[in-house]
Amino acid sequence: MKNLKFAVLAALLCPFLAMAQFKISGKVTEGDGKALSGASVKLKGKGFTAASNANGVYEFANLPAGSYTVAISYVGFATQEKKVNLTANAELDFVLQQLSFVADEVVVSATRVSKNAAFTYKNLSKADLEKTNQGQDLPYLLNQTPSVVVTSDAGAGIGYTGIRIRGSDATRINVTLNGIPLNDAESQGSFFINLPDLASSVDNIQIQRGVGTSTNGAGAFGASLNIQTTTRRDSAYAELNNTYGSYQTWRNTVSAGTGLINNKFSFDARLSRIKSDGYVDRASSNLKSFFVTGAYYGKNDILRLNVFSGTEKTYQAWNGISEEMLETDRKHNDFTYDNQTDNYQQDHYQLFYTRNITKQLVANAALHYTYGRGYYEEFKTAQDLKEYSINPVIIKDPVSNLPIGTIEKSDLVRRLWLDNNFYGGTYSLSYTPQSNLNFTLGGAYNRYEGNHFDEVIWAQYANYDGSGSIRHRYNDNDAFKSDFNIFGRVSYQLDKLNIYADLQYRNVFYSFYGKVDAKNFAQQNARLEFFNPKFGLSYNLDDKNNVYASVAVGNKEPNRRDFTDSNTGTRPKHESLTDIEFGYRTQQSNFNIGANGFAMLYKNQLINTGKLNEVGGQTRQNVPDSYRIGLELDARWQIVKNFSWSATATLSQSRIKNFTEYVYDDTIDGALLTFDYSNTNIAYSPKIVASNEFAYTYKNAGIALISKYVGEQNLDNTSASDRVLDAFFINDVRLTYNLALPGVKNVGLNFLVNNIFNVKYEANGGSGAYLSNGDFGRYKYFYPQATRNFLLSLNLKF
After folding, report:
1. I need a surface site. Which of 108, 301, 641, 773 has the fewest CB within 10 A?
2. Which of 20, 175, 137, 48 has the alpha carbon at shortest distance from 638?
3. Separation CA 475–CA 481 (nearest Å)
4. Which domains does the chain have, with CATH numbers?
């Protein structure tokens, strides 16, 4: 009877216990009792995260009754987990043990910011990437992060894709792989198509918006992406990923790893293939890649070798379509030649060594080599043979053998080749004499050697001077670039205030074949030196609230086309940016919010104005003053145990104070029109960018509604209302289900329906002006994106 009474009482109390709110709190220390500040604290599977404060204390409040697993991680220490059945407030203390070997995260720590730093950033874990990785290019996996706009030439995210952050394109976004530059040394863009399915070998990514901290490679004007590839996994594993989707899209990925062997060695490998016909006609992609890594873990050091490669064959869809075509044939592709393709292979070799010299001093060094080669092939009609160094074809009378005519134009097929080598070394030295003080010295020296050559491989009419060669090389020039940088930074924690200073010196040397004047070409040299200081303050209002402010200076050299399409008298200046960031962060037990304001003030920003050089080539020009100002929001709320809401929003304004547009008459020498503008919008800079995700999970199943809104974008810098990309609002639905089967750790199904409301929209485009015999006009072109489409994935983990 007594037991029955207790059972009845418990049953009556269950609803009240379920509604009750409790907290989990505790302290994180190391073996000698010293508090660990900034340790990452997670409630596994719940989406709740926190960090220990200066006294090592953490807390999760307002938790419903139930079972929880608390996981604590800290760089250089073994991760710990504890389970608790929460029916009252619980206190869980953790004593972390220092690892007997160095953590892989140390490799990228020199180019990253830590929690509560005075800069704006977003961290994406391996789990975050796995949710969205179904073979689309890496920019599409970043689409739900603040201020990001992505686009695809083929329309569906496979093939050539683009990314803009705060309106800045890929040439202004610094990308590093394990601290090693990925940006092309000459164009300064990052072409993720050369490394298909890279995300399957990525452990984590940190996105810093604005100038950010000092890093290696091209200047970060819009943002920087710091990507860390596969890190240590202690247990052996194997994984198969297969995706099928619209437009005959296939992805097949197999990966495996040994886990830690004899507590010292690990080996991991991945092999991938992606094929798609594309949404746009003939915009097909055939992509292959592999990734292999091996590591040695000593008590005080790590030695790791990465070898990875990617090949791509992509049918060109670079031209977009006219406005009229948007209504009649959205999938239209102007290119009809069978082999109008881009073909490229890129091989990467990376060797890293990290050593704990003392408990306070950690050194990193890396050597790298990248070999890239390939061409794009295209059919060209009615080309002037003299432009290809081909003599006119003399037509002779078959009887008299006397000249009766001359052919100076011909249809032809050409290949534009690039063969390059990129190699060098990076290093960093981190010294922490006391827990609240850290010094870092880092930098890199990299060299690029690029051979550019072009060939005619077929011509309807041609005169090869009797050589009869099927390969007529009409252009051959080399380029060389060296990039040296060194930076030093200090971070000092003074009670609740963190003081940060970062100073970088960068020296760039570029040798290229280009114009001396209107008639003469020669190998030329340019050297640029930059000083990039950065300062920041961060203040912890309490354990969960933080405010910060920073100012950072960035300088960026012109790209290859800016050099080769200008001459010694018209060469543009380098660009400069002063970036001011300020913000507020709060991280509660069930929600976190980051609000960030920014002002990016440019000097001599390079834009297209239509101005030509002395031989008729269009060059970008410096505009003295321009700016971007805005406010960013990044938030996540775990509304109830199984239902979460994530959202981002950016409100911004981007302006060019004054510039002149030039339009030249292509039939009357020297004739042109000029238009003066003031306070115009910077092209491709929407005033509003927002994303949203509602996610619900029940046992092993999940459903998410994913939304993206991008405001109107100008196609040029004139602010003309008739030359814009219309705003678009896109919604996707993702369904997931996971289960375990005998012999299989996890079977995962992921069904993604993109653009569920079948919206017709364009995420990219362009415009231009023309003048012929005094007649002036303008034109526009657009890149249509896919209507409703799907991707279905099956993931098997062993």
Report:
1. 773
2. 48
3. 20
4. 19-226 (2.60.40.10), 227-797 (2.40.170.20)
